[in-house]
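note to self: dont lose this again. the chain is below, predicted strucutre after it. 235 aa total, dont forget to put it in the shared folder this time
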Amino acid sequence: LPNQLVHPMSNIAVATLSRLTANAEKFRNSFLQVISLQAFIGMPISAILVLTGQDLILLLLGPQWETAGQLFEIFAFGLGIKLIYFTNGWLHLSLGSPGKWLRWSIGSLLFTVICFLIGLSFGLKGITIAYTASFYLLVGPALWYAGRPIHLRISMIVTAIWKYYFSALLSGCAFWLLLHFNHYSADILTRMPIALRIFISSCLILFLYLFFIVITYRGVRPLLQLLSLLKDLLS
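---
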């Protein structure tokens, strides 16, 4: 799923950024806008899949795959960060440094294997957690290493995406509280057909996400800017 979401934008983003290599500041600002867009799209999807993953697996594969649903929810927790992590390749390609990308890929693979070995002692769930955690640990160093020619700092990356991550986290927590501490709403959702429950839950989480975005940014201007950026990238 993350690769399918990244690929439609990758060629456009690399082509756009490649035209800005002569101006490091403009390149950096454009890249930060792009990862903001990635975060805006990816973080709510991550929250939705974390909270509806069990139902999705039940709907698609049946009740005998309940354990797979739990693992899917853990994978989903890292989806938004994974989308940000993959943009390190965009930096390497647009800046003409495929050799650096290869070296990073080898190093990150070794790090992921170490995470797997640590998680192995805790079973399949431990491996899944280790895999998801590896992206959280690697995303900052990956983008810093790829963005050194344009003086990209980790603090800039955090500034560009943290409000989207925080809003998705808040929306997920709010929905979870609504589901577990409000017996009336929980009963209504439980009685729904599973497909309808997934749809209603997803819409509610998305609504909460946009609500918290507006609260966090104190207005809708960032949303309009991101939509304008997406339109420019796709035009």
